[in-house]
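Notes to self, DNA polymerase III chi subunit:
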Amino acid sequence: MIKNAQFYVIEKTQAKNLLTEAETLACDLAASSWRLGKRVLIACETEQQALNIDEALWQREPEEFVPHNLSGEITTYATPIEISWVGKRNAQSRDLLINLQSQIPDFAVSFKQVIDFVPIDETEKAQARERYKQYRQLGWQLSTEKA
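result:
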């Protein structure tokens, strides 16, 4: 089974609605992936980052709404988009992992497709390069695209 990791190279730092460029792009990619029928997990670094993304998804225009929930929230049905953070994740199977964490999450190997980001910040860029190398060592197909 071929596994793909797509890295988006962030070229500007302009934040909107308190989100970084990578976080904003993560929301947009999650929404478009859901519209294609995919079940998405957005893996955040911290609970606060997850709360910010949750709030940003709620603030979208009504026609751009995407059903989502934070890990650990009680829902009658699993939502198509779950927002997790380090140490907190539901067990539902998902098609796409959107990684905002500084490391590759342990559970990434259970996905066929991962989206990751290369920020402008030099420290974060170095972490992204390390994740890229690790995916390559795991035998993943890698691609990069400018955001």
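- Strands lie at 4-9, 40-44, 68-70, 81-85, 96-99, 113-118, 141-146.
- The chain has a mean pLDDT of 92.
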